[in-house]
Amino acid sequence: MTAETSTWATKKGLAQMLKGGVIMDVVTPEHAKIAEDAGACAVMALERVPSDIRAAGGVARMSDPLMIEGIMAAVSIPVMAKARIGHFVEAQVLEALGVDYIDESEVLTPADEVNHIDKHLFKVPFVCGCRNLGEALRRINEGAAMIRTKGEAGTGDIVEAVRHIRTLLSEIRRLQSMREDELFVAAKEMDAPYDLVKQVAAEGKLPVVNFVAGGIAIPADAALAMQLGAEGVFVGSGIFKSENPARTAEAIVQATLHFDNPKIIAEVSKGLGSPMRGIAAVTIPEAERLAVRGW
Amino acid sequence: MKIGVLALHGAVIEHIQTLRSIGVEPVAVRLPQDLEGLSGLILPGGESMTMRKLVARWNLREPIMALALSGAPILGTCAGMIVVAKEIAGGEEPVFPLLDVTVERNAFGRQLDSFETELPMPILGDRPVHAIFIRAPIIERVGPGVEVLARLPDQRVVAVRQRNVIAISFHPELAGETRIHRLVATMAAAYAEPHEGAATGNEPWSPGEAR
């Protein structure tokens, strides 16, 4: 009887355990504790929340390992951390720290404009962003064990998140309606590996768990993502840029759980104080959009 | 006969699909009224801290305890094992104090230490279980009246049963393993129709047995 660690089933399996939950961006151990107390199923450790990254400009990198360790020590739920697209050494560092998941994230400044990280080489599982099915399958082909639609991080505007989850799921439905001999061209058109395209057409879903990210600010946003077909949500700036982070976090957890129960969503949404102010995604020039990073 | 799956978060759909695959009608349980008419309940993998808060928030503790104490089979997998333990290492309050064991969460370490293996589990027959352990807990202390169902080669306990409550550290629902669900279904059938079938151990608890 031999035991094998870091198998595909364990990598993908951890994401399966997070389904129906909320993964919250945190920048300090204190934030992480607030998130855990609110019912977050995992936290994402990063240096600054996306709206601050957006405001500050400059280069956004992996967080200070000391801060990540502090967050790992503060909570018992899984801790994820972000590496720059293509920056496989940041990923090596995060693996050495023992984080539970690495997010190869467009929220940080890309380190490679051609290649993503070869995620098969790592023992830690990866989550990656996508805007459509082709992008999701390219990431899975590189070894991503979890997918999140990108939305537009740091805006508090749900519009891009809605666009991306709708696009992803309608492209899956389209594949399901095709004859098998049409899948070759479909794979070519979406620039995705044929084997994965065939698998998605047969199963009607991605081979890994899919969350929605980028723009969730209030409980109803989270429930909207869930009703559209998300398996869970990431909330970044929406919590710690709101007037009352602890209550907002808790309310978003309840709305994600009871996403199809408007009475409960109404109840938990009462008197939360101001949500993050946000910026309308439509006003952001192409060059400043985070979702277009990665390909 | 219906078996519920606590659907607060975690590996809910996998248990629902496994139940369907063996011909049992599954019910997703999010609110107390969802428990009505159930003959058994599965507490799935996920994060026990998250489940603890949501169980309290939606007033599920009392009705789930009542279902368990009435003799309906309860299966806890991974985080579900943590929430049915009477004692959690580190002194945290129990959620559903049903099993006389002490459970240690994340006992193998972090995600990097997650693993899969073939595990003998005699109650299911000769074929070992393909066991996937993800940030898994173990049973540190086994109380009297608790039957050990499986151990790792180093003797650590990863599956137990006490009366109608079964707890396992790993994830049969991720491995296409249906025998544990079949066992629970058999127990649920005996609970639903007490004078039919061969399963035992489903009698209601007597006063004083529950803490």
Account of the 3D structure:
The complex is a heterodimer of chains A (295) and B (211). Helix content of chain A is 43%, strand content 13%. Chain A has 295 residues and is α/β, with parallel strands linked by helices. In chain A, helix 7 packs across helix 9 and helix 12 packs antiparallel against helix 13. In chain B, strand 11 and strand 12 form a beta hairpin. Chain B has one domain: Rossmann fold (3-Layer(aba) Sandwich). The two termini of chain B are 29 Å apart. Chains A and B meet through strand 1, helix 1, helix 2 and helix 12 of A and helix 1, helix 2 and strand 7 of B.
Task: State the main characteristics.
heterodimer, A: 295 residues, 13 helices, 13% strand, globular, B: Rossmann fold, seven-stranded mixed β-sheet, 5 helices, 12 strands
Order of helices and strands of chain A: EHEHEHHEHEEHEHHHEHEHHH
State the oligomer. Answer: heterodimer
> In terms of per-residue confidence, which ranges of chain A show pLDDT below 50 for 5 or more consecutive residues?
none
* Count of beta strands of chain A: 9
The number of domains of chain B = 1
Query: What is the correct CATH architecture of chain B?
Result: 3-Layer(aba) Sandwich
CATH homologous superfamily annotation of chain B = Class I glutamine amidotransferase (GATase) domain
Q: What can be said about the biggest beta sheet of chain B?
A: 7 strands, mixed
Q: Give the number of DSSP strands of chain B.
A: 12
CATH topology of chain B: Rossmann fold
Mean pLDDT of chain A, to the nearest integer, reads 96
Strand order of the largest sheet of chain A: 8-7-6-5-4-3-2-9
Q: Which pair of chains forms the biggest interface, and how many residues does each contribute?
A: A-B, 42 and 42 residues
